[in-house]
Design goal:
homodimer; 205 residues; mainly alpha; Arc Repressor Mutant, subunit A; Tetracycline Repressor, domain 2; 2 domains; elongated; DNA-binding
Chain lengths: 205, 205
DNA sequence: GTCTATACTGTGATAGAC
DNA sequence: GTCTATCACAGTATAGAC
């Protein structure tokens, strides 16, 4: 541990370039879909020749891997940021954070596909990137625990319910709210079954 | 209406070849994933040169389109075939047909992705193929109506719940049953909320 | 260390001979 | 209807200029 702190301008610049490439990759994915990502288009947007990308990423899969990790870190950040402004009643907290999650997923369909669907033929996230996913997942788990969802089965049931609303919304009414607007109804059903404090027992018909 | 009935041997042979190609495409998709389908591998399995496929399908997307229609027709057939052996009580019918649907989806992940997730960059099913999806959907709708699910919102909620179980099962526990085994619990929750005849009101904890 | 130039492989697609 | 030849363009890899 001798010498100045590692404050290389070089490595800072290098990291900035990596981020620039990732930002361009997200743009392309937004337009072409996550499977339609091409290094060519990414390079054009960054103002490089396609092979130059290999100075910063080992392969196209390495770019997907970095995007995967970044997506889950962004979700964790969104959850943390949403804590201020969160209601206190368990039932209302449940709905509040569900909306945070659903809106995050619907905001960018290709990001959601990369995070939650195995859609790139040979891509499997690296252990480091998968750890980012686990971190975000544990964050949600902790929130659920506060709310009163403690059994693993109940958590799995909730993730399925939310994932289903997102999947149906994106597949059958993209850009609309046909399933998104069912959130209150879905959570009332869930809260009654699992027993969340502050949930209404009735149902308006 | 003059002449013999249209019993061309030529067109029969032609249709048989198309089916052969589709069967080979399903095999490739099963191995490489639906997005990993290549005309080369399809051609090899059929014993053709890749360009020869264009005598039978206008493009790769046309193959996807035929696969899409076939998949939905197969689902409709599976639902129809399951009618014999179906229980009579609404609550048990609900669970029975849910299992038919979930098992069909889990049976071949790439088929499920083609049917329910927009995963091929520029592919949108043709009106004719989409009609096959609508037919199958209407079949399920009719079954649900018998069971007592009549409101559109209630149907949408159920499709979301089922799609969510499938999505989570495939994404986070492929080949296992971590979410699939939640079917009874999920449907009890749903049946209690929507009011299906013959549903238990309690919950074992 | 970083980018350019170039080339190799594989893929979807088309044209034309048989 | 099938094949051969060929094209355009993707991802990938290496060599070399600066």
């Amino acid at each position: 541990m001798v010498g100045l702190p590692n404050r290389d301008r070089r490595s800072e610049r290098r990291e900035a370039t990596r981020q620039e490439i990732l930002a361009a990759a997200w743009e392309v994915a937004r337009v072409n879909g996550i499977a339609g990502l091409t290094l060519r288009e990414v390079a054009v947007r960054v103002g490089m020749q396609p092979p130059s990308l290999y100075s910063h990423f080992d392969s196209k899969h390495a770019i997907y891997d970095a995007m995967f990790a970044q997506a889950w870190r962004n979700l964790a950040d969104a959850i943390t940021a949403a804590e201020k402004g969160a209601p206190r009643s368990p039932r209302r907290r449940l709905e509040y954070f569900t909306r945070v999650f659903v809106d995050f997923a619907l905001e960018e369909p290709s990001r959601n596909q990369l995070m939650n669907v195995r859609v790139i033929p040979d891509f499997t996230p690296s252990p480091e990137s998968y750890a980012a996913a686990v971190d975000a997942f544990e964050l949600m788990r902790a929130k659920l625990r506060e709310i009163g969802v403690t059994r693993d089965r109940d958590m799995d049931l909730l993730t399925a319910l939310i994932a289903g609303l997102i999947a149906q919304q994106e597949a059958n009414d993209p850009g609309g709210d046909r399933w998104r607007r069912l959130i209150p109804e879905a959570l009332t059903m869930y809260a009654n079954a699992v027993g969340i404090a502050g949930s209404t027992q009735g149902r308006k018909r």
